[in-house]
Amino acid sequence: MTQELHIIGGGMAGSEAAWQAAEQGVRVVIHEMRPQVATFAHRTGNFAEMVCSNSFRSDDDERNAVGLLHWEMRAANGLIMQMAEAHRLPAGGALAVDRDPFAEAVTARLNAHPLISSSFEEVTELPDQGHWIVATGPLTSGALAESIRAATGADALAFFDAIAPIVYAESVDMSKAWMQSRYDKGETVEEQTAYMNCPMTKDEYYAFIDALLAADKTEFHEGETAGYFDGCLPIEVMAERGRETLRFGPMKPVGLTNPHETIKPYAVVQLRRDNKLGTLYNIVGFQTKMKYGAQTAVFKMIPALHDASFARLGGIHRNTFINSPTLLDDQMRLKSRPNIRFAGQITGVEGYVESSAMGLLAGRMAAAELQGRVLPPPPADTAMGALITHITGGAEAKTFQPMNVNFGLFPPIDARGGRKGRKDRYKAYTDRAKESFTAWLS
After folding, report:
1. How far is CA 239 from CA 56, 142, 184, 236, 430, in A?
2. One domain for residues 274 and 413
3. Annotated binding site: which residue ranges?
4. Are 47 and 95 in the same domain?
5. Both 40 and 128 in a single domain?
6. How far, in Å, CA of 311 to CA of 360, rounded?
7. 3 phi/psi in degrees, rounded to 5
8. CA dist., res. 93 & res. 56, Å (int)
9. pTM score, two decimals?
10. What residues bind FAD, as annotated (predicted)?
11. Which of 318, 337, 361 is the endpoint of a domain?
12. How confident is the model at residue 422 (pLDDT cuts 50, 70, 90)?
């Protein structure tokens, strides 16, 4: 333990990387610029603060790639998954967490670890010496981003990520809304009633779309381009693609039964619980770049939200990531500066779980190297292996964009049945992955 591992960034990836390396017996220093240097999206100085959704998405480890990633992280003693489970909220088949207690718990566990220390300052340049992991996420500071560009000889890529608004539950008109998870998913009544549903008639829906399209939007600065990630499109961008687009996206009315009306809703807005107390709900899929005044006026056109009060309105921010397929090796090291690894969203993965998983791998790989070993990446037929294979060479570098984990990244499996056999095929993917990942861990 004569050498330390230094990690820049205390978000999901940095926190998980620190935990994994320390659990392998390596001394770790986390360098976090908050709270001394703030970002527009963060509110605290806690590690692993959630700034967008409070959902880790599907927890189905048998037929969903995200759920499989949950399973792998749990199997690998993942801190983020441990704390998510401890602060879980009802969300149907999803894993949603009480965001503030979750971040506080992650921070407490890291601060209590005897091999982990923290340094609160902004790192502005990539270090020449020592072992480092850069896990600065989508809001990498300008100075460090410039240093990354200088070291790689290539511009970092950027797209815009939008934040959904949060509503006070008591301000929702429950004479118009009702509680139900789509298709009544979940094993308990609480899970089956985890979402607040706000119906709209055909006329109300089209009036909403008209107002959405006409609303004042945030303008981009000169030289910036709006290359959105399709998994996190602002609702107005979706509406611009067609007036029915939202009805087949976040406002789809399927799998729901309105107890107040016998007529089927034309569209439904869903709200998901955002804290354990159930006092806050975020509007699912409603990331937006509308200006604040416009947001309030447009969202109150949803009948059940006509008197809604907002704990947080939506926003939009620049999201920076590197062209990992050209810059990183299969150990997540910068090819031109192998003392530096990258992890998390800055590598071009998208989502809390994916970012944490890449932190997990970077932390374990760095620890192994410090101990004179080489830890190979997980097999490509695992969720983690599929992600790291994608970002370190499996993706097309010229068109590289942020990616969520999905079965399309996995090596094909021989399972027949077409669309009707999809569930069986997905189960075959997860069975194969669990066997491979267990062998890799051992």
Report:
1. 26, 32, 28, 5, 35
2. no
3. 9-14
4. yes
5. yes
6. 33
7. -115, 150
8. 11
9. 0.81
10. 9-14
11. 318
12. confident
